[in-house]
From TrEMBL:
<feature type="domain" description="Xylose isomerase-like TIM barrel">
    <location>
        <begin position="57"/>
        <end position="269"/>
    </location>
</feature>
<dbReference type="InterPro" id="IPR013022">
    <property type="entry name" value="Xyl_isomerase-like_TIM-brl"/>
</dbReference>
<keyword id="KW-0413">Isomerase</keyword>
<dbReference type="Pfam" id="PF01261">
    <property type="entry name" value="AP_endonuc_2"/>
</dbReference>
<protein>
    <submittedName>
        <fullName>Xylose isomerase</fullName>
    </submittedName>
</protein>
<dbReference type="InterPro" id="IPR036237">
    <property type="entry name" value="Xyl_isomerase-like_sf"/>
</dbReference>
<dbReference type="GO" id="GO:0016853">
    <property type="term" value="F:isomerase activity"/>
</dbReference>
<dbReference type="InterPro" id="IPR050312">
    <property type="entry name" value="IolE/XylAMocC-like"/>
</dbReference>
Length: 279
């Protein structure tokens, strides 16, 4: 058993909050990863957030039987410009404070890059940058502990958190129940390791399975050395085996479809419902 979710902004078109909640519910989806900046950008500034706003969105979604599972605040947490980084971290901290009103259990982000525009840089793989990231995550987790909201961190190949081993090291350095890992296997797959993707997930559960709080399920195709995201069922992700591993180790865990949009969501739901998944 899993808690299947979608990202609200993977439904194309203009929606009011009520219409978005209805559209998600119509897909037979009961959970959403909700990004204010993507779905309702005019409401996403931290100074605009307030308990009433969170309660409003919580109620709109709950009327359709949908829960806000994750509140997204995806940002460049290690932005190279100190003033801009401080604005980003303060925004994340305000999201942590207000998450309770949205009834979200965590606020989520990737780690970012030393390149302001989130570009590729081998500097991201240095121990110095990783130490910088640790200090950032320690700060956010202290705020999460204060407000009793989890900080959900997602790894990626072009980030300082680029491997299972780096994730395990982060967890060791930030030993808090309020640090959780949002695990996206495709974010860590290369053309050379694609064939070993299930072993990659098995390794993750061995190293830090108790810290995985959400699985991002993103399909992919290979074009030479490039890993290209595609809707679920159109690529090479071995999702039946990965979901079986998840159920074995983390039953009822959140599973968020990513890069699967609109009609593709219906196909993905049908594919997952057709699997013989067992505890």
């Amino acid at each position: 058993m899993i808690h299947l979710a979608i990202r609200g902004h993977d439904l194309s078109g203009e929606y009011t909050p009520k219409q978005l909640a209805q559209a998600i519910g119509a897909k037979k989806i009961k959970n959403v990863q909700f990004a204010l900046n993507a779905s309702f950008p005019d409401l996403s500034a931290p100074e605009k957030m307030n308990p009433g706003m969170g309660t409003f969105f919580k109620n709109e979604f709950q009327e359709q039987g949908v829960q806000i599972a994750l509140l997204s605040c995806y940002s460049n947490l290690i932005h190279p410009e100190p003033g801009e980084r401080e604005k980003i971290l303060q925004k994340f901290e305000r999201y942590l404070f207000h998450a309770r009103y949205f009834c979200a259990s965590m606020v989520a982000s990737e780690t970012g890059s030393v390149i302001a525009a989130l570009g590729y840089s081998e500097e991201n793989f240095s121990d110095e940058v990783f130490e910088d990231l640790i200090h950032v995550i320690q700060r956010l987790v202290r705020v999460g502990e204060k407000y009793r909201i989890m900080v959900g961190i997602e790894a990626g190949l072009n980030h300082p958190l680029y491997s299972n081993q780096r994730i395990a090291e982060l967890i060791e350095r930030v030993p808090s129940d309020y640090l959780g890992i949002i695990y996206d296997p495709t974010n860590l797959i290369t053309a050379k390791t694609a064939a070993d993707q299930v072993a990659l997930v098995e390794e993750a559960f061995t190293l830090f399975g108790e810290k995985i709080v959400c699985l991002h399920l993103k399909d992919f195709q290979l074009s030479g050395e490039e890993v290209i995201p595609v809707p679920l069922g159109e690529g090479q992700i071995r999702y039946p085996e990965i979901l079986q591993l998840l159920i074995k180790h983390k039953p009822y865990c959140y599973v968020v479809l990513e890069e699967t949009k609109d009609a593709g969501i219906d196909r993905a739901v049908a594919l997952i419902e057709g699997l013989d998944l067992k505890n």
